[in-house]
Specification:
By secondary structure, the protein is of the alpha+beta class. The protein is about 40% helix and about 20% strand. A hairpin with a 2-residue loop joins strand 10 and strand 11. Helix 1 packs across helix 2, helix 3 runs antiparallel to helix 4 and helix 5 runs parallel beside helix 9. The longest helix has 21 residues.
């Protein structure tokens, strides 16, 4: 049985959710919008470091989008416009880095046994700088209000990010380094904007509510106008793209690895039952997708869920004890 950063995070969030996802292998039919957007942007970033053209990057993103009906909705069309802006701006903003760093690996799968536990994963990006150091890079998108503040909670929590700590351990399996690896988060700051009013208008005295709403609609940017506006924003505003190193000492990393191994061992034990962590049932993003199942109002066998093999994001090796 292998353990990944995703399965670790799911288990610590709620063991029951881990059971449904990784043991019973049933997941919601539709991914949350934020995850769909993040995955689409991730494809764009990956394409850049593979030295694909922007046109090729968009072909790959469009292929991914065909897998979900979300992109045909009104919200999906607006998010598509944003993704075009994020990725095209990323190509412009990061262009100089291709001559600064050697690209060692992109979307590299790895496996490593630590403390008797078999871990696996897929690293977003590994670079080598002019000093011979390896740079471990994780791509992220965030609409957090404090993402541009180095001392904010957004950044402090990343000092002990399970994924990056595991990937740090795995780097020795990928390439040699002349010094301890550098951990970097490559963050695109998302916009919460949507098509807006072209100019300020107020309701006229003799105007009905329906007439006023119709006039507002006529005064709203078209999708084409909106695309042009946010495209310009992401081409010109470099603060939308953040490249930040997360400092961590050898002792800090070692302590975190010990914690991860302990949790992984608990995951591997035979469970009579997986407890529900009620504090994880509702978050600021809404209820857990398995909430109704836990409440007895739905079933994993309903049409809201589908089969998905555990660790199917990995293409090679052994997944959850099953050879592929």
């Amino acid at each position: 049985m292998i353990t990944t950063a995703s399965s670790l995070n799911t288990y610590t969030q709620c063991p029951r959710r881990y059971e449904y996802t990784y043991i019973k292998e049933r997941i919601p039919n539709e991914d949350p919008a934020a995850l769909l957007v993040g995955s689409a942007v991730h494809i764009g970033c990956e394409s850049f470091w593979l030295k694909d053209t922007y046109a090729r990057a968009w072909e790959r993103i469009a292929t991914y989008m065909r897998e979900s009906d979300f992109w045909t909705t009104d919200r999906g069309r607006i998010e598509t416009a944003k993704i075009r802006a994020y990725v095209s701006g990323y190509y412009r903003n990061r262009e100089h880095m291709l001559s600064t760093y050697e690209v060692v690996a992109v979307e590299r799968e790895w496996e490593k046994t630590v403390g008797g536990v078999q871990f696996a994963g897929k690293i977003d990006l590994v670079l080598r700088d002019t000093k011979g150091r390896l740079i471990l890079v994780d791509h992220k998108t965030s609409a957090s209000s404090d993402v541009d503040k180095p001392g904010s909670s957004f950044w402090r929590q990343l000092n002990y990010d399970t994924q990056m700590i595991l990937y740090r351990e795995a780097l020795s399996e990928i390439a040699e380094s002349s010094a301890p690896p550098v951990l970097v988060y490559d963050v695109i700051r998302k916009t919460k904007s949507k098509p807006s009013q072209k100019k300020k208008i107020a309701k006229r005295k003799a105007e009905t509510v329906l007439e006023y709403e119709f006039r507002k609609e006529k005064n709203t940017e078209t999708i084409k106008e909106y695309i042009s506006r946010i495209h310009t924003t992401y081409q010109r505003d470099d603060t939308r793209y953040i490249w930040r190193e997360i400092p961590i000492t050898k002792d800090e990393a070692s302590q975190k690895v010990d914690e991860i191994v302990q949790i992984a061992r608990m995951m591997g034990q035979k469970h009579i039952a997986y407890p529900r962590f009620q504090n994880s049932c509702i978050s600021r993003w809404g209820p857990c997708p398995y909430f109704d199942v836990c409440c007895g109002m739905d079933s994993l066998e309903s049409s809201k869920f589908k089969d998905k093999q555990a660790h199917s994001e990995l293409n090679q090796g052994e997944k959850n004890g099953k050879q592929v």
